[in-house]
Design a protein that fits this description.
mainly alpha; three-stranded mixed sheet; 5 strands; 8% strand
């Protein structure tokens, strides 16, 4: 790590750039709860050791779990919702307009970066519950099933389809690309005791089977047109059977 930092500083000097020490942090990800305080000296610079930090608008935590970012995303989307509460509560604005506002100003805040998530049942339930809260505000008291009127699959299904979209994109990448290397790389060591969290690749395989009816997703994803068609069919199918 120190060698990499030294190389970054050296290369940055060529075009006249400098590393901003105040924005440079160190995060050690481990489930064994390593020391996360103080700072480390690298090339004469004191780099702060943190428990979490925001990178490319996503939150990374020392334990490597995604629930911190998922919880944060729900909070941010909820803040966006309350900032527009007067719009959703207005009787002078058509439902269709409110739905467009939800889809363009709230939903993207919720599932930003979701392509890399592996949702468990509890997280799926919380996210779907959040969406239903907004849809009830928009549609008001109705006798019909909520998603039958909304004509869209649950947001958890939308997230899974976006994850499949990204999986297909990575599968079609050249083998030298970093995401492709990560997809097929393995991490040494032993898993901790207890039920492990579902791996991302396992979630993709399960989604491909349940949502698309595809068993060999890697082969199907090689054809971008076919893969896109399978996703659209899955979305239409789950829109029709949404609860």
């Amino acid at each position: 790590m120190k060698e990499t930092y030294k190389e970054i500083k050296t290369i940055a000097k060529t075009p006249g750039l400098e590393v901003n020490i105040n924005k440079t942090k160190m995060l050690m990800q481990s489930r064994r709860n390593p020391r996360q305080t103080g700072e480390i000296n690298m090339e004469g610079d004191g780099i702060e050791i943190v428990e979490d930090f925001i990178y490319l608008v996503s939150k990374f935590h020392k334990d490597g779990e995604e629930n911190h970012e998922i919880t944060r995303r729900i909070t941010l989307a909820n803040n966006a919702y309350f900032s527009l509460l007067s719009v959703f509560g207005s009787k002078n604005i058509h439902r269709a307009t409110k739905i467009k506002i939800y889809k363009t100003m709230i939903r993207p805040v919720l599932y930003y970066g979701c392509e890399g998530w592996t949702l468990n049942k509890k997280e799926e339930s919380v996210i779907n519950c959040f969406e239903r809260k907004i849809l009830r505000r928009i549609y008001g008291p109705i006798k019909e099933k909520l998603y039958k009127i909304h004509k869209e699959p649950e947001i958890s299904v939308t997230i899974k389809l976006k994850r499949l979209q990204w999986a297909g994109h990575v599968q079609r990448m050249d083998k030298e690309r970093i995401p492709k290397k990560i997809l097929y790389s393995t991490i040494g060591g032993r898993r901790r005791a207890g039920k492990p969290r579902t791996r991302w690749i396992d979630a993709v395989e399960e989604d491909a089977k349940k949502l698309m009816g595809v068993r060999n997703w890697k082969r199907a994803a090689q054809d971008g047109g076919e893969w896109g068609g399978l996703r659209r069919e899955a979305k239409a199918r789950h829109r029709a059977v949404a609860p």
